[in-house]
Structure formats: structure tokens, C-alpha cells
Amino acid sequence: MIAYLHIITPIIEILIIAIAINYLLSFFWNTKSIDLIWGVFAFIFLFAIVTYFNLPVLHKIMIQLGSAAIITFVILFQPELRMALSKFSLKGKRYKEITEFDKFLDHLANSTYRLAEKRIGALISLENEDSLEEYAKKGVILNGNFSSELLETIFATTTPLHDGAIIVRDQTILSAACILPLAEDSTQLTKSMGTRHRAALGLSNLTDALIIVISEETGKVSIARDGIMTRGIKIDRYKGIIRSIFNPPNKISFQNKFNLKEWLKR
Predict the structure, then answer these.
(1) What is d(CA 129, CA 207) in angstroms, rounded to the nearest whole number?
(2) Which residues lie closer than 8 Å to 213 by C-beta, 6 or more apart?
(3) What does pTM read for this prediction?
(4) For the chain, which domains are there?
(5) If we measure between CA atoms, which residue out of 80, 148, 74 comes closest to residue 114?
(6) Taking the alpha carbons of 228, 233, 235, 240 in that order, is the dihedral positive or negative?
(7) CA-angle at 171, arms to 169 and 173, nearest 5°
(8) Which residues of the chain have pLDDT under 70?
(9) SS3 207
(10) What is the pLDDT of residue 213?
């Protein structure tokens, strides 16, 4: 039995490390933070080399740098870390997040992939810190609360608003049938990508907005961000990208949390 443990233990350790790395990468993937994450991995790899070759001076320097880097990392990525940790249980008590953002994200994701399944083209711009007011004014002002029904109705091919982009601000559909600037450099675009993809890439070059594109030819969902177009995104990664960028404040509700109002009703 002990002999088998020597074989099984390294395998278990590798699996745990692989799962942790996969979770970390999926959480930060396609965000500005991913470059820093790669830097962390490079630092760990270099530290392993220094340790293996027993280089005491470099080892001591890297220990000092690592300690400072950990503190800096925690400070810089406090919102992301809080969001990631919210997926796990705390002190053995399972809990769930109940936020308006979660509801919005579920509706957005479900609508997006329903449209994709039907191969209905769509262009959805999620406003971040840079204002999209100038583009919203060129469309049809709606100022409607976001809902799956409204989104899918707008992009139905029988409606006059489907040909253009919608702009979403704080879970409100600000405007529809908006004309977005086209990207001058189309080297990232393939033959199956049309004007919607070019417009998404163009806006992502000029603002920090996140733009979602649904191809009516292939039914694939793409996201444009910071001048980079990512194609063929599955729903789980789709949610992860949007969540990691917009970082809504968590409002955590424990399932076994004491509720005074409910207790008084008894």
C-alpha cells in the first residue's frame, strides 16, 4: 500500500495544481490582468530553476521579491479574488450570491446563446468606464430595463431595430440600431466575419467597452475587447469574461442566515 502511495501522491498533486491553474486562467482570461498572471507563472518557473540549481543569492532575492509581490497581488486583485473565493464554501457553510448582476448576466447569456442557436445576428455593446453616449445618440433611444424578451425582440429579423448594435449601460438597454465605427485593420477577421465583427473590433479599439457579436452565418459567439477578437466562446467562459471585467459588488446571502423578519412572522 505504501508503495502505491508513492505513485498516487504525485498524480493527485499534479491534478490539484492543474485544476487550480485552469480555474485561475479561466477567471482572468481575455482581460488586461492575464498578462500579469503569465508574469506570475514566469516568476514561479524561474524560482523553480533557481532552487533546482541551488543559487543562494538569487534564491534570497526572489524570496524577498515574492513576499512583496504577494502583498501587491492581493491589493491589486482584491475584487477578483473576492469574486473567485465566493465560489467556495466558508466555514463549511454553503452560500450563494444573490445580486442583480447575476440575474442580468444569466438573462444576457441565455438570450445570446438562444440567438446563436437560431443563427440570428446580433451586436451587443456593454459600456464600461468610457462613455458610449455619442454612439447611443445615433441610434434609437430606448432606456429600457434589460430583459431577455426585449433583447431577443430587438434582434428579431422582422423588427426595424435589428440592423445595428444595442448599447447596454448598467443593466439598461440605452439605445438600439446604433452605428459603430468600423475597424481599419481587419487582419483578425476571417471570411466568415462580416460588418458586425468589424464594427465590434472598431469600437473595442476606441473604448474599453466589451462587445458581443453573434454570427448569423456560423452561429458562433465572439467577444471584442481592447482590439482583440475572440471567437467561438462557450457560455461558461462567456459569463466568466463578463464577470471578471465588470466586477460587480458582491451581495452574499448565506442559505442558513438568520432572518429576523421571517422569524417574527412565525
Answers:
(1) 8
(2) 122, 123, 124, 196, 197, 200, 221, 222, 223, 224
(3) 0.59
(4) 1-88 (no CATH), 100-246 (3.40.1700.10)
(5) 148
(6) negative
(7) 60
(8) 1-6, 24-34, 76-98, 247-266
(9) coil
(10) 96
Tell me what pLDDT residue 30 has: 55
**pLDDT of the residue at 153:** 94
Which residues partner with 253 through β-bridges?
96
Please tell me the predicted confidence (pLDDT) of residue 41. 81
Q: Check residue 261 and give its pLDDT.
A: 42
- Per the structure block, which three cell numbers stand in for 108? 444576457
Per DSSP bridges, beta strands 252-254 and 95-97 are antiparallel
In whole angstroms, give the CA distance from residue 50 to residue 65: 14
Straight-line distance from the first to the last Cα atom of the chain, in angstroms, rounded to the nearest whole number: 56
CA distances from 193 to 188, 199, 211 (A): 10, 11, 14
pLDDT at 81: 62
Cα gap 74→76, rounded to integer Å = 6
What are the grid coordinates assigned to 150, written together? 426585449
